[in-house]
Design a protein that fits this description.
Two copies of one chain form a homodimer. The first copy, chain A, is an alpha+beta fold. Helix content of chain A is about 35%, strand content about 35%.
Chain lengths: ~150, ~150
């Protein structure tokens, strides 16, 4: 899938991603990198609303897992169970969200478990950056369920 | 402020709240209760996108603190520092978000500290409900900073 096709998929199926004007800058085995501008995500202080920052971080994490499972040809659904979000700095403009696995070395056993038992758990973290500096950190726990 | 005026304020100053079609159902000393419909918050599985659920929970928590500080005539700004979100059940339609203080007995000392030292910390929790059942639980830590 091209970056453009991924972006279209997100905007069509998760309309909040279109409302937040999320763009897909990179998507590969290592990461998914999204960006979002200030205007649709602004708050009353003219910085990014925390709920937007967290939603873009969640979207990056989900997109990363979704694409990797698709590539691994595993037919399953992803459910987010829990996340934490640390807001490190106010964001005054366009920001990025880079999702990666917390423990990349566990990917293979995650896929094997999902295929054998129909259920497996994995953690994804997303770094938010604004103007070249860290602005927030998200960690999400997902469960993947194999479709029968 | 009437519920309608609060809703207008949110929609104008935090445009994501308009995109999510958030409505203000109640706002008093004890709680802020918001609702949001499925359509603008849907995901590819036809349930509420986790990022939307968390953003509505964050909005409820922020709105609660904002209104109470306003009522207490404390001129300050609120910064969210950290939050956790637990997703308990998939949400298939309109849902509500009810924000309350984690420790209501600490409100007075929070306001006193803010007035005396210009900085104070407080926690808010938000319960998400769908169809009469708990669907998610958010806890957020906020810092209030007095304007000089």
């Amino acid at each position: 899938m091209s970056l453009h096709a991924i972006q279209d998929y997100l905007h069509q199926h998760i309309p909040l991603s279109a409302a937040m004007e999320v763009a897909v800058l990179a998507a590969d085995d290592q990461q998914v990198l999204l960006s979002a501008p200030l205007a649709p995500n602004i708050n009353h202080r003219s910085t990014v609303f925390g709920g937007s920052a967290s939603a873009v971080a969640t979207l990056a994490a989900w997109t990363y897992l979704h694409l990797r499972l698709r590539e691994a040809k595993v037919d399953g659904q992803l459910v987010i169970q829990r996340n934490t979000m640390n807001y490190q700095q106010p964001i005054y403009g366009e920001f990025t969200a880079r999702a990666t696995l917390v423990q990349p070395e566990k990917w293979d056993s995650f896929v094997r478990l999902l295929q054998r038992r129909g259920r497996a758990r994995i953690r994804v973290e997303t770094e938010l950056e604004y103007n070249g500096e860290k602005a927030g950190h998200f960690t999400g726990e997902f469960v993947a369920l194999a479709n029968e």
